[in-house]
Design brief:
The protein has helices spanning 49-67, 73-94, 143-149, 155-160, 190-199, 230-239, 243-254, 276-295, 308-315, 330-348, and strands at 4-11, 20-28, 34-44, 102-103, 105-111, 115-121, 125-130, 133-136, 201-202, 208-212, 266-273, 297-302, 375-379, 382-387, 393-395, 402-406, 415-419, 424-430, 435-439, 443-448, 456-460, 465-470, 472-479, 482-484. With 485 residues, it is an alpha+beta fold. The chain folds into two domains: 4-287, Phosphatase 2c, domain 1, CATH 3.60.40.10; 296-484, no CATH class. Strand 13 and strand 14 (382-387) form a beta hairpin. The radius of gyration is 26 Å and the shape is elongated. 43% of the residues are buried.
Length: 485
């Protein structure tokens, strides 16, 4: 039996609660079938009903698969999924005055490490990554697709219908359930796809099977940008395997969520055949990163333990040390940097906060650290958000500047980032020694490295330039052609 690597991860995204559930496992059924299994369910319902439905469905389908004495794989799948539907439906009926309690499900089974079988109910998805390309194996059970399958609407009419994306099939809605075991690689016809899927889909060396809730493939509401592209998914699955692959996919998607966007829960599960090329690709990727790091122009700004007088000079635009990548209007840049510095002085109020090695906690208006925190985000005196992950994209509105207080240990002073309106930044990594940020085009930032001895590393999107700031640094990144520090 070929080795199969398993992994799964889930995150609430921009929501308060996570109604997704997932599981991966490998076992031998009572009928002697050796299975590698992955399942993802996306819950629907008020209060805790959605997550209860999803968890019940996951638990039931795995329990049924393990204990079944059915040796015919398609009947095994149908029976297990219908048992999960019956369990959710019965629980929904048991609740008095219930709201909707239901969930989607995608299920993937690999038999003897060689042949894939799938099942789908709803709009969660299963993808195949093969040879660097990503292809969807399942079809969403939306109004548009169902009407086309039934022959009631043409594809064009179905796509233009206001209910085109409405989910038409889910666990827990009806006592009866039709289980879609289709593989839709070469056809969009429901019957043909199910004939192919029930026969089993042979896997090749290096194949990756991705199961996901629809949150992974949605776009951020405020930007309209995808959280992760098909190319990024394929590259990740070619480079990582098992749990690291699942975590890398979630991490990439989370880094694209703007602050405050109500992005859906995001859940993934992966099943991957062994492939020696993944280790080679990982080593190659690491070597490329090391070469890029060594070839970068490193601009170091040292302003250690600046006294209050130096900060006051900064506030009127007397900036010490400008490094110009390309020629630009120096007077305009000085004025912009002075405004950022002036804001920094108002919000910070004490020069001691900028010393790199403070000897005692300093007075601050920043609220107390909460569990998992790496930074806090402010607009003026108002706390906007507590940043709990280290790769979120922050997009500053053009109308007002933002201020980030970085202190993941809540010891001594904070490091501070003052962002001008319209700036975009990712806080990529925070350790005891340093923190790393990535600036996007059109951004202006004033950095004070605070208690981090190795300072702040600033990467500029699209450039092989890394700036290290120990003390204070103001920089404007207008674009690849113009960078002023």
């Amino acid at each position: 039996m070929a080795e199969i690597f398993l992994g799964s991860d889930s995150n609430p995204g921009g929501r308060k609660y996570n109604e997704d559930r997932t599981a991966v496992d490998h076992f031998t059924t009572r009928a002697g079938l050796r299975l590698d299994v992955a399942v993802v369910c996306d819950g629907v319902g008020g209060e805790e009903h959605g997550e209860r439905a999803a968890q019940l469905a996951v638990d039931t389908v795995l329990h049924q698969l393990r204990l079944s004495q059915e040796a015919e794989i398609t009947r095994l799948i149908t029976t297990a999924v219908r048992a999960a539907n019956a369990a959710v439906f019965a629980e929904a009926e048991r609740l008095q005055g219930r709201q909707t309690m239901a969930c989607t499900m995608v299920l993937a089974l690999i038999v003897d490490g060689k042949v894939l079988h799938v099942a789908n109910v709803g709009d969660s998805r299963i993808y195949l990554s093969r040879g660097g390309a990503l292809q969807q194996l399942t079809r969403d059970h939306t109004f548009a697709n169902v009407m086309v399958w039934l022959g009631k609407l043409t594809p064009e009419a179905a796509a233009s219908n206001p209910d085109a994306d409405k989910v038409m099939r889910a666990l827990g809605v009806n006592a009866a359930l039709q289980v879609d075991q289709g593989v839709y690689l070469s056809t969009t016809d429901y019957g043909e796809a199910n004939v192919e899927g029930r026969a089993g889909f042979p896997l090749q060396v290096g194949d990756s099977i991705l199961l996901c809730s629809d949150g992974l493939v949605k776009h951020a509401p405020s930007t309209g940008q995808p959280l992760i592209t098909a190319g990024e998914i394929a590259r990740t699955l070619r480079t990582y395997e098992g749990q690291p692959a699942a975590q890398a996919l979630i991490s990439t998607a989370l880094g694209r969520i703007p602050i405050g966007d109500p992005v859906d829960n995001i859940t993934v599960a992966v099943l991957q055949t062994a492939d020696p090329a993944r280790a080679v690709l990982r080593r190659g990727q690491q070597a490329v990163q090391q070469r890029r790091q060594s070839s970068r122009m490193v601009l170091v700004a040292l302003a250690v333990a600046l006294p209050l007088g130096a900060l006051l000079l900064l506030s009127v635009g007397a900036f010490a040390g400008f490094f110009a990548i390309t020629r630009r209007n120096a007077n305009a840049t000085t004025t912009q940097m002075a405004r950022l510095t002036e804001l920094a002085l108002v919000q910070t109020q004490t020069a001691e906060a900028w010393t790199p090695t403070p000897t005692r906690p300093l007075p601050t208006t920043v609220p107390t650290l909460v569990p998992g925190e790496i930074a806090k985000l402010f607009a003026g005196p108002h706390l906007l958000a507590v940043l709990l992950d280290d790769n979120r994209l922050l997009q500053v509105p053009a109308s007002e500047p933002w201020f980030i207080a970085v202190n993941h240990r809540s010891v001594g002073a904070n490091a501070n980032l003052h962002l001008a309106g319209g700036s975009q930044l990712q806080l990529q990594s925070v350790t005891d020694a340093r923190f790393q940020v990535r600036l996007l085009e059109g951004s202006q930032v004033f950095v004070q490295s605070g208690p981090y001895p190795n300072g702040a590393e600033i990467e500029f999107a699209g450039l092989t330039v890394l700036t290290t700031a120990r003390g204070c640094l103001g920089t404007e990144y207008a674009g690849p052609a113009t960078l002023t520090a």
